[in-house]
Structure formats: C-alpha cells, structure tokens
Design goal:
The protein is built from 14 helices and 23 strands. With 428 residues, it is an alpha+beta fold. Strands 5, 6, 7, 8, 9, 10, 11, 12, 13 and 16 form a ten-stranded mixed sheet that branches. The longest helix is centred in the middle third of the chain and has 21 residues, at 197-217.
Length: 428
Amino acid sequence: MDFILNLNKYLSKSFVNELLDSMEEKKTSSLILNTKKIDEASFLNLFPHLRKHPFLKYVYYYNKDEYDLGKNYLLIAGAYYIMDASSLITSSLLDVNDGDLILDMCAAPGGKTISLLLYNLDKKFEVISNDISHSRALELSKNIERIGASNVIVTNNDFSLIKNKYKNAFNKIILDAPCSGSAMFRKNELAKKDWTIEKVLSLKEKQILLLNDAIYMLQDGGIIVYSTCSFSYEEDEEVLLEVLKVNPDIHLINIPFKEGFYKDNNVKEPIHLFPNLYEGEGQFIALLKKDGNDKKYDLSIKKEEKNKDLKRFNLNFNRQITLKDKIYLTNNPLDLSKLNLIRPGLEVYEVKKNYLTPSFSLAHYLNNKASIELNEKEKDLYLHGDEITKVLNLKNDFYLVSYKGINLGFIKYVNGKLKNYYPKGLRH
C-alpha cells in the first residue's frame, strides 16, 4: 500500500489531493514567546511583521526570509522558542494545575515541555522531561536551559523498564509518540522517501505499548495528551481504539472544534491538523482521561536554603543535587534514584577547583534586577566572548549582565574588567 492509498482509508480523494498539494507549498515558521523574559508589545516592536496566532496565546507566525529568528541572540537568551504551530496546540490542551506532576515521555528536542511551561508561567508544577535517546536527551537539556525553567528534570530512560517504580505517579502525561512522520514530509525529504506501510504498522505496535505504559503511570483522574506527526489512521485512531479495548477505565475527552481542525466521523473526540486546513505542518492529537480523582503534590518550599552562595540569589528549593561537579536545585517530590538524570532540576553552580562558578542556566532563571546593563557595543563584545573594560563600584565577584532587560549570562568583575563567562560554544 502506498501513501496515497493509505490516506484514502479515511479521507476522500478530493481531500487527499488538497492535502498533497499543500504539502508541496513552502513550510510555515512559528514561535512561542517567553513572556517571563519579554512582553509581547516589546517583542512586536522589534519584529513588527509577526502575525498573531488566531487562538494560541504567545504564539506568532513569521516570514523566515524577513526575520532569521533562528540566529538571533534572543533565541539563545530564551526570549522565545521556535516550534511548529501544529505541535504548539498539543500542550495547550492540558489543563495544568498547581501541584501537578507531569511526565513528557518522548520529549526531545523539548518543544512540548517548553510550550507547556510558557503557557503556564503562573502555575506551580513539576515536569520530568524524558527521551530514550541519550544524544537527543542532551539536546533537550540545552533547550530547557535556555528557557530558564526551574521546574523541569531531564532524564534519559526507557520507562517501560522502570514503570513499576512510578505506578500512578503522574497527574498529566505527554506522549508525543515516535511515528512514520508524514507531517514532516514538507520539511524533510528523507521522511518522505522512508515512508512504508510496514513502518507504519511496526510503529503502531510500539505506540500501543507506549500508551499502555503511560496509562499505567497515570494517576486516577489523570490526563494523557497523545500526539503523532503522522497522517496514517493506523498510528492515530486505530492506536486509540486498540488501547481503549483493554483499558475500560480510560475514555477519550472531546477536543472542542475550532476552524482548521479535522475530526474523523467514527472517532470524533481527537483532532487532525492538516496543512490544507490549518497553518502548520500537521499533527494528530487526542486527550485520554483515567476514571477517578487525582491527588495533587505538595510543592511548597519546606526549608530555607542556608548556603550563602544560594542565598545571594534568593534560591529556596526543597532539594539540592550534585551531579558531575554541578549543583542543581529542584522541588520535584519523586524518588529520583531509578532515573538516569541528565539535568536534575535548575543547574545553579559548577564546582571548579574548589570554588563555585554560577551556571548559564542560572542566568536565564534569574530576573535582571541585579544585573549589569550593557550597551549595544558591549553586548556584541560579550556575545563574541571578549573581555569588557567597565569600571564599576563593585567588589570583585560574579555578576549578571543584561541587554535591554534580558539576561545574557555571567561575568566576573575583576578590578574594572568584565571577565567573560558566556559559553564558548555559543560565541559569535
């Protein structure tokens, strides 16, 4: 069976033709704004030709030929995250509450976790953001770092092997399942060449296993958002139908219809996002709920951190973890001993030669109130990795530097010199 015949399984020939035509058009570009870093008015003042998404908050479309936002220093500073507008709907559908513990099972490169954070900056919740691939988990960790999140632990685990340790542990689970990737055809020619029905059917079995694992780890009353970037019915509705057969305590939640959504006539609760209807690359999204009522976690701070270096930045968390000469802080209440930890919370310091160097992550997390404001020339020197001469009435120590109210990183002030601590791999 070829790709077109596969689509004809549930879509009309005329609709398939429209879909295929749309997949030959230029792909869209979109982003989600980090309003903790910059407000919408200030961002639009910098990039006035952005188009607001019709219903997603903080989401904008942009013309990549006009704004090369993938190379702008504001991306590294965590002011926004570039992500497809179809994928950005997924985490917007989760009703996050204070005290939620959330698992993102297949999280790399991090968009679902990051957008969840940026939609819910006013909520107190904790996330375990996981990927089974170690290399992809490292990339995930870098992207989390830029946003300045303090409530995310990044892990590299196969949860099918440790699910017994986390039975009924999570209030919400994001499962963006590995799939055949037909929604990626427009931006990835290899995905198009690699598509086969055999691959679809093999991935369907994997998706069923992953979804059943997610249900096992979900609290009573908890919610799973299941998504794929596949247009194949086998990986979407058929996966749900198979899983519902063996999980009588699970039911689908209807996703309210909006312009641009497509709903199947037989399984009406989920949505498809097709590029001929919705401005994005495509996505299938479903919400599943387990019967019962979930229990929220107590994430309140239970002690004040006494370490003087932490007190300087008013860093009060419940747990301090040292991993590979780096110090992390977290409020996550779970037993973390069974997890392969990549980033166990907010990285705050690196231990170098018996002294503490504040981390790049910490610069992204902190506000700019105590920062040294740089002018444009100094900002360019800093991003290039150069030392800056600037005589200030300060004692020799580490300090934040910022530009137009956005933190760039740390320097060490030494007798009128700003010693540069911007990461070498980011300098330009």
